[in-house]
Amino acid sequence: MKFFLDTAHIEEVKELIETGLVDGITTNPSLIAASGRDFKKVIAEMCELVAGPVSAEVAALDHPTMLKEGRHLAKIAPNVAVKVPLTLDGLKTCRVLSDEGIMVNVTLCFSAGQALLAAKAGATFISPFIGRLDDIGHDGMQLIEEICLIYNNYPDIETEILAASIRNPLHVIAAAQAGAHVATIPPKVVHQLLKHPLTDNGIATFVKDWEKTGQKIINKK
Ligand code: G3P
Known about the structure:
It contains eleven helices and eight strands. By secondary structure, the protein is α/β, with parallel strands linked by helices. The chain has a single domain (2-195), classed as TIM Barrel (Alpha-Beta Barrel), CATH 3.20.20.70. α4 packs across α5 (88-99), α6 packs across α8 (140-152) and α8 (140-152) runs parallel beside α9. The longest helix is centred in the last third of the chain and has 17 residues, at 197-213. It is globular, with a radius of gyration of 20 Å. Bound molecules: SN-glycerol-3-phosphate.
């Protein structure tokens, strides 16, 4: 499973990049707003930091303007994936950009039917929003499972399922169990995935017992 970071804060990416865990990044207008920075600078810096896809979302809602914006975003760097919403105009734009060889991440997906349309429109990625479905009492993970089932029926579908709107480590684990290709994870959740009290306790015990040996792995000359 590929791990993308769901953030527009460059420092959060820099902190995790050395782990080798960061296969890509997703941003959206809300994340860009939260960064308080110029979107072009943020996307350009992100594209420098990671070799994988960096999603940058269009702002327009009409196809002609989305297309202009998408082509403009794609010029920032070769690893830009243009994000378009799951609307008729978004699918039209997806089709054209995809045919031009530009990666497209179709976002704000909340049904299997929408995901099927996005695949037919040539989407590189489909972003089903797990957390926002959970937030209104629907089962977000069921959507991931449904899309995995449908896509797996058709080997010619190359669209990757990018589990999004992730709220906690269980979403990541369940999305992996379902077979999603990618999870875009808030940095906070990456740190939550990492932590376990028994690991911390084990380290403390090992340190204490090692000190008792009086030995050093490397003796200072
Ligand atoms: O960036 C796309 C998606 O992961 C955002 O989800 O619900 O946390 O705003 P959310």
